[in-house]
Amino acid sequence: MSQPITVKLLKDKKQKGEKFTVLTAYDATLASLCEKAGVDVILVGDSLGMVIQGHETTVPVTMDDIIYHARAVARSTKNVVKMLDMPFMSFSYPTQAIDNAARLMQEGYAEVIKLESGAHQEQLIRDLSINGVPVCAHLGLTPQTIHKLGSYGKRGKDSQEAQQILSDAEQLEKAGADLILLECVPPVLAKKVTDTVSVPVIGIGAGRDVDAQVLVIYDILGASGYIPSFAKNFLAESDSIEGAIRHYVESVKNGSFPV
Ligand code: KIV
């Protein structure tokens, strides 16, 4: 019987310098293959709005959408941490955020909830943490704010923004965040954050010097129409979907991905 994968285990892995893997999945079949292939955390991300529903952004995704897909994932998996996204505007004031976090845990079987964050969410993260909700604070590129940002470009490129991301990570860890996710930031900044906070840092487009990697499953299967520069088509070097996921897991763990 393999060791139960829990948020505590992920924290222990950071202490031991062992990398872990996160992959999105939104349905029972692919979630089950992720588990078989050794993925530690399945993210039911709001990226489903783009890759499943065909929207141009993640903004239209609703709480009901996340819960629907998360329940399918939960039905087919046993030993994998399930992380669910709080969708756009589902956590904009305290009572709404707490009620929706409760829904993700009770109806969607979340073991961690992820929210696109900043220091302004310090109190919310404290409240969730006190109430027993494990939280992943998503910093750097936050796609739900695309209509304010104007592009999906890298964040933290200038020293002021880099310092802000680092101090947000420190502040949110103190408030109780259990995991930090950094999207599209310079590798040197991701390394600094990873060395500074004691909770695990998951990176996407953030280089290799982080504690874990996350990718969108359709990107590693070469099925998204295009492959972002920070991803790789692992199916091209494998003979099955399960093999491709296993290849991703092994490549992250042995440090050969990302290059
Ligand atoms: O929604 C999602 O899949 C995400 C990842 C790309 C990090 O937030």
Net shape: globular
- Helix percent reads 40-55%
Bound compounds: 3-methyl-2-oxobutanoic acid
Our estimate of the beta-strand percent is 5-15%
Adjacency order of strands in the biggest sheet = 1-2-3-4-5-6-7-8
- The termini sit apart by 33 Å
Total DSSP helices: 11
Helix vs. strand class: alpha/beta
Helix-strand topology string: HEHEHHEHEHEHHEHEEHH
Nearest-integer average pLDDT: 97
Output the radius of gyration: 17 Å
Low-confidence stretches: none
Tell me what the structure shows:
There is one protein chain. This protein is an alpha/beta fold and 259 residues long. Helix content is 41%, strand content 15%. It contains 11 helices and 8 strands. The protein has an 8-stranded parallel β-barrel, surrounded by 8 helices. Helix 2 (28-36) crosses helix 4 and helix 8 (159-175) packs parallel to helix 9. The mean pLDDT is 97. 3-methyl-2-oxobutanoic acid is lined by residues 24, 43, 45-47, 85, 181, 183, 204, 214, 216.
